[in-house]
Amino acid sequence: MSTQRLTLYRWRRDRIGLAACLRDCFSGQRLMGWCQTPRHLFLLGWDGAAVLDWTGKALEGPDPLGQVYEARFFHSGGDPDGELRWLRDPETDGFGRAAWVSETDRWAPRGFETADVLSDLEPLDALATPGGTIPNRILIQARAELPGIPPGEPAVYRIREYMGPAPEPAGDHGNWIVVEQRILGIRPLNGGGANE
Predict the structure, then answer these.
(1) Of 98, 117, 136, which residue is a domain's last?
(2) pLDDT (tens digit, 9 = 90+) per residue, 107-125?
């Protein structure tokens, strides 16, 4: 393993709806990410004041995120660098738990409280294979919804995984596991892109 070590800072907020979380906690911030409903998985943007579809048009209606049960938004460039995660609590009427994960503690979303810090982590941005080193990424089927990706072209989420000591008893023997993962951007499978 390499000698580079990172700390991953985490914040959380309970009992908040996704739309309220974006509006109240990420005002002025630009995010991009995916949302999952019982019927669809789709890409959305947040321009700091409104939820946008993949064409950049503001979503309309009283509750355009009302059916979302899981969402992951990454910062679409610049500071702050991090990822917002939101998961609906099925026991409530639209409320869920939100978390912000970042390699820096310079910025935290409004109203979030500090959660546990993961330290002594090794970032994994590339995978060594017999054919060479490849970037760490997850293949996704390209659709018109992916900004900067030509329709029909395969695309990938660029990800960073964080390796850390395994829990006891395996960790007592020096074993390491992937303890966290973060989305860094979206790009065409065979080239760069605006959301790298």
Answers:
(1) 117
(2) 999 999 999 999 999 999 8
